[in-house]
Model the fold of this input.
Amino acid sequence: MTVPHPFNGARLPVAILGATGMVGQAFIRLLADHPWFQVTTVAASERSAGKTFAAATRWLEGDMPAAVRDLIVQPCDPALITESVVFSALDSGPAQELEPAFARCGAIVLSNAKSYRMASDVPLLIPEINAAHIALIVTQRAQRGWSGAIVTNANCATIVLAMALAPLHAAFGARRLFVATMQAVSGAGYPGVSALDILGNVVPYIGDEEPKLETEGQKILGTLTGDAIVLAPFIVSAHSNRVAVEHGHTVCMSVEFDVPVTAGAALDVLRDWRGDEASHGLPSSPPMPLVVHTSLDRPQPRRDVQRDGGMSAHVGRVRADPQLHIRLVAMGHNVIRGAAGASIQNAELLAARGVIRAG
Ligand code: NAP
Done:
């Protein structure tokens, strides 16, 4: 089932903030042939503003789409950018002030930054898991007096964690998680980690990553009650590591549930999961939200990360844990499923639900 075109076949003009960076470029690639949205404005820092997009950008993958080459990069100023949908690939520093400025001026801002993810009136959205949380937009607008809104996607490793955990939590109630990540270099943006720091190496620290892994999942898997999210009651202990992988964050986790769970029961639940119906048929939704691997040495970033355009999450090595109940490995594309693709899928959900409208 495909969701009907929300704009009667016309593509809605959209702007990208931070368009020159790692995530911004992924937005450009993913939106180049998007059926609902068309990139009409690219914006970045004052360093890039005024140049053509081609001149301002060190393009990282494939060929730059012809439609954006000659666009003049704009400063991130809501007085100059009038599109009603704004995809933000800004760092959290500039996002802190700029994203509300756009929302105040009436734009729906789809944010990748951490700045507003945990705000109580801001959806932290994964359409397969918590589509109902878009109702927070009503509260957000009432509280902040905005005609637009900010809708966020989670930290790139947390999205992978949450996709694997969602069906298990719904079936068995997660109580405690022990998590260790192996995160790709592209997660640090461009130019990111120096080659001399990462080649042949593992860096056992990623600034500010562990607190996100330890808190965002509870909001994503929380329950909308009235006009607030009641956080899911599990606790997470996280270790984050940067490894010499280009794309794809791997998350090894052991989980304790409210009830004893066998590996077979966990596998059945993971295989059966289709995600929230609200996500079905959106242009960016993968055929199945989770790919369940049975080979002992999968999932692997090199072999699996590009499947379904990078929008699937992968799980494997589902087995009993000698201390908690179940352990498994999850993996997903940090720049696609964990960032630009996630924002685009969120925008698709908002369009399908009439929050994003033409005109
Ligand atoms: P990046 O490659 O460093 O790109 C940053 C972008 O922000 C560039 O376009 C840059 O423009 C622009 N920018 C920097 N300072 C600015 C300012 N003061 N005003 C306006 N624009 C400014 O970073 P990234 O990896 O794409 O990450 C972007 C955001 O997504 C961050 O919040 C990050 O945490 C989040 N995120 C990243 C990933 C990932 O896998 N990389 C995953 C999930 C979330 P110039 O080129 O002009 O400097």
About this structure: The chain has two domains: 12-154+340-352, 156-334. The domain at 12-154+340-352 is CATH 3.40.50.720 (Rossmann fold).
